[in-house]
Amino acid sequence: IRRPPRSTRKESSAASDVYKRQIIESDEDLLKSYKIVCEFESVSGAILNRNFNKSKIMGLGGWEYREVFPIAWLQVVDMMKIFGFQFASSYEITIYENFKVLLKDFSDCLFVWNQRILPTLRIRVHVLKIFAMSKLCYKLQCLPIPVKFVIKFESAIRLFLWRGKLECIVITAVINSPKNGGLGLPSLQVRADALFIKHTCRCIHARHQSYQHIKYWLGILLAPDFPDMATGPHSPTPSVYFKHMLSLLRESFSQERINPKNLKINPGPTNRHFGTLGAGTGPEPRFLINFGSIW
Question: Cα-flanking dihedrals φ and ψ of residue 100, to 5°?
Answer without folding.
Answer: -65, -45
